């Protein structure tokens, strides 16, 4: 299947947006971790590691965007495995970090060890507030781009931005809570962020493994394809349809029944019309084979 110019331009736009998000999240994560270290805020350090998880989600989206241009399923699967295994490795490291930060926070609460139980500095609060404002702006931008491009990767980035903002707000609550109550308040917040980091890391790992094998397409996609096929003049019915999904790409094999009185030329015309209709109406359709009975 040859991608038309409109889809190629859309891929370039998505690739550009996702690349900018990767750079932005790396910068923001490093800033959070550095500020967390100097302000003695363990919850901010943990929040910085969570922002790093957004980097891996964006890299995954970029991997999908680049590989959508591959000509064959075999070449796509081979190249995808390399990129996905790297993401899985780093996500596992993040998962181990989440367990480590959870343990430290728990020890701080129970006072088993005094590893990081000094009161965080209040000057970190306005810094976090600035990162929230920047993230809110980026979040609104991602929502607009997601609506404009109908891109699943960008919509996913938008959802993760919202969660990162919420966790940053809780980080501020944790720091201020140290002065109102006790230092353990921030440790509780750190545990919450660590749990979210662990959940996100597991989600990334599961998604990466799932995207390295092809599966049966979602029922709504199958219904949409079958519905479109039956609207073509000359198609009497569908005898068989096999629709597979590899990551976001759709691979379709459809057998249609036509009148045995039709000429070969007319049958070929119907076949091409079905193929063109599906390519123009099914996003991320990678391959479409139409067989006539």
In order across it, which strands form the biggest sheet?
Answer: 1-2-3-4
How many DSSP E strands? Answer: 4
* SS-derived structural category: alpha+beta
Strand content: 5-15%
Distance between the termini: 23 Å
Radius of gyration: 25 Å
Order of helices and strands: HHHHHHEHEEHE
- Overall pLDDT metric: 77
Total number of distinct structural domains: 2
Question: Major β-sheet, in short?
Answer: 4 strands, mixed
List strands and helices in order, with pairings.
Layout: H1 5-38, H2 42-67, H3 73-110, H4 124-149, H5 152-180, H6 184-210, E1 215-216, H7 219-229, E2 237-246, E3 249-257, H8 264-281, E4 285-292
Parallel strand pairs: 3-4
Antiparallel strand pairs: 1-2, 2-3
Helix pairs in contact: 1-2, 1-4, 2-3, 2-5, 2-6, 3-6, 4-5, 5-6
Question: What are the salient characteristics of this protein?
Answer:
293 residues, alpha+beta, Alpha-Beta Plaits, 10% strand
């Amino acid at each position: 299947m040859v991608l038309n110019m409109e889809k190629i331009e859309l891929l370039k736009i998505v690739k550009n947006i996702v690349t900018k998000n990767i750079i932005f999240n790396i910068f923001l994560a490093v800033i959070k971790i550095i500020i967390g270290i100097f302000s003695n805020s363990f919850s901010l350090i943990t929040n910085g590691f969570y922002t790093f998880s957004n980097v891996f989600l964006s890299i995954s989206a970029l991997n999908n965007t680049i590989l959508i241009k591959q000509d064959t399923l075999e070449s796509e699967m081979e190249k995808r495995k390399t990129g996905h295994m790297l993401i899985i490795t780093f996500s596992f490291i993040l998962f181990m970090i989440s367990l480590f930060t959870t343990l430290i926070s728990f020890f701080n609460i129970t006072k088993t060890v005094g590893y990081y139980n000094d009161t965080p500095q209040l000057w970190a609060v306005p810094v976090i507030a600035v990162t929230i404002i920047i993230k809110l702006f980026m979040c609104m931008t991602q929502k607009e781009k997601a609506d404009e491009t109908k891109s699943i990767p960008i919509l996913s980035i938008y959802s993760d931005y919202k969660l990162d903002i919420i966790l940053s707000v809780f980080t501020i609550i944790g720091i201020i809570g140290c002065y109102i109550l006790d230092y353990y308040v921030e440790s509780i917040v750190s545990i919450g962020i660590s749990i979210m980091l662990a959940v996100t890391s597991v989600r990334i790992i599961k998604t990466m493994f799932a995207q390295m094998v092809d599966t049966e397409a979602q029922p709504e996609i199958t219904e949409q394809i079958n519905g479109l096929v039956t609207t073509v003049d000359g198609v009497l019915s569908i005898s068989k349809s096999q629709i597979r999904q590899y990551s976001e790409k759709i691979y379709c094999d459809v057998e249609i029944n036509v009148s045995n009185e039709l000429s070969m030329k007319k049958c070929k015309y119907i076949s091409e019309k079905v193929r063109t209709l599906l390519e123009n109406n099914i996003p991320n359709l990678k391959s479409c084979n139409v067989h006539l009975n």
